[in-house]
Amino acid sequence: MKNIAFIIMLFVATGLFAQKITVQETNGKFLKENHNALLTTVYYSTAEDVEKELKSLFKSYKGKVKTKKGVILGDDLVISSVSENTIDVFATVKQLKDGEVEVLVAFYIGGADLSSSAHPDQYPRAQEIIKNFALNLTEQSFAEIVKEEEKELEKFTKDYEKVVENKEGLEKDNEDYKKQIEQNEKEIEKLTKEIETLSGELKEKQDAFEKLKKEGTKIK
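RE: above sequence
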């Protein structure tokens, strides 16, 4: 999914959690025409990704799919679960805030807009298609967020463990240094006493040597 890092940032910053997918009947403007339409929201995604997936959905119903002035147009789509006749669709995708994307879809059947009042049997089926689309894409988008966050967490955990390891290594070095310093201090104390003893002996030997040299001057 594109812009996943941006979506993760919004997700963390705004605290977006579980979202309930709903589909509302409303009136929407497509190009210059008003149509009865179905309105829903896809979460944790971008308009670019949603538009791509929506066009893919329409293409799965055969017919022709194109985009004109920001409106996705589906011509003669075969959506058998809704109608035996071909259906024209109009759709717009709008980026809202915090990773929310508004999806507006109008179904045009037999020269009339699909509506709950005029098509009590067909409307719920179309409503289910739009709801499943929004639900599935929201779940997929959320799964991508979880996947990316898991990777980031694993990387951060490794970095953290490395810092801890470095700290523990330095602490161990310090302990080793302390032990070495203690040993050195004991050895210094021992050598200091030995020097005091040897310095006396050295003085005696120096005096004896000087005396010996003086004795040598008496030889004639």
